[in-house]
Write a structure and sequence with these properties.
Layout lengths: L1 H9 L4 E2 L6 E2 L11 H4 L2
Antiparallel strand pairs: 1-2
Bound molecules: zinc ion.
Length: about 40
């Protein structure tokens, strides 16, 4: 069961910043569509 969940998240496509197109690193509590740089603007 748990392994399936891990695989599910592994297979998620990496997100891209909607502002600059930069790849967004996974963040535990941040699910915005922009990268840190654009977020702080
Ligand atoms: Zn950005």
């Amino acid at each position: 069961m748990l392994e399936n969940v891990v695989e599910f998240f592994k297979n998620l496509p990496s997100k891209q910043c909607t502002e600059c197109g930069e790849k967004i690193e996974e963040q535990s509590e941040c699910y915005s569509n922009t990268c840190e740089k654009c977020n702080s603007l």
